[in-house]
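Task card 7
Instruction: Convert sequence to structure tokens.
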Amino acid sequence: HQRDPGVQPPGRFATQPSPLMIGARAVALFALLGLLVGLLFWLPLRWAVARLPEAVRCQQPGGTIAAGFCGSMQLAGNPLGTVRWRLRPAALLLGRVRAVVAAEQPGLSLRGVLQLGLGGGLGAQDLEIDASLDAPALQRYSAGLRGEVSVRLTELQASAGVVRSARGRVLALNLVQTRENSVALGDYELSFGQTTAAGLQGTVTDRGGPLEVRGTLTLTDPAGYLLRGTVKPRDSAPIELRRQLEFLGPADNAGMRSFAQEATF
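Output:
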């Protein structure tokens, strides 16, 4: 005798998980995940230092993984000084590491919210940097110059070592050329907010001083930049600076000379 497949045997019932049971399982899973993340985050930082990537060095560690500090940190050979952070665990559920970060070293301070995605993308919000060009982290980039840099970016996104988008401004203040004789160069502003097919582009302007400057700075891929514009000496420009501008070629009818510089980092 063949049983009708639509009829259940006596004593057996077809059971399907109820929505309430599925919800309870989901809550239990998230609770377990939260517990594991919590236990991991509150481990002492010194336990994790040995497992950091080779490019990251943390000396004099303290606190926990979630809220810790390195008395001296280096990133890819660049000294960052004392670095403190406070992680935001909820971001991990979205596959991101997000933290409020502060770094201090002689001549440099950094504050902001930094975020690292699973794909390696780096983001920042409310980024503030105040630095002297004599700071250890900047010395390799500022040969022959003295002055200060002030960075205020509300947003920044980078990937593969290239800044893809940014909003805000960078000020170069009290610049002095120190090669041979010291020559004051003035103050300048770089404003970001536009991304073109060539890359992120900012506008460069002077803020008074011996030179009148108008130009653009484009961050190119692979990591590099293209700086071009026009420059004109003001009446206050010293003779040494006027002589240097002559190497750019003849001036136009308005007294402006064109310049361009392209390089990779």
